[in-house]
């Protein structure tokens, strides 16, 4: 595996990894995915509002 592409790396690096055996998210996984997305949206919105001020 390339040293810059690791499951321990940044979100971008982890997002492009493809696992041999995919599994469905399930209810808990979907909930955590939504929490992660909303958290990232809030951080981006705060950053945008700070720059717009």
From TrEMBL:
SUPFAM superfamilies noted in UniProt: DNA/RNA polymerases (SSF56672)
Protein keywords: DNA-directed RNA polymerase, Transcription
Keyword Transcription: yes
Entries under InterPro entries matching the protein: DNA-dir_Rpol_phage-type, DNA/RNA_pol_sf
Alphabetized GO MF terms: DNA binding; DNA-directed RNA polymerase activity
Keyword Electron transport assigned: no
UniProt name for this protein: DNA-directed RNA polymerase 3 chloroplastic
């Amino acid at each position: 595996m390339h040293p810059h592409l690791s499951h321990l790396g940044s979100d971008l690096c982890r997002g492009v990894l493809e696992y041999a055996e995919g599994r469905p998210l399930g209810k808990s996984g979907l909930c955590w995915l939504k929490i992660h997305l909303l958290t990232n949206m809030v951080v981006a919105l705060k950053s945008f509002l700070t720059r717009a001020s």
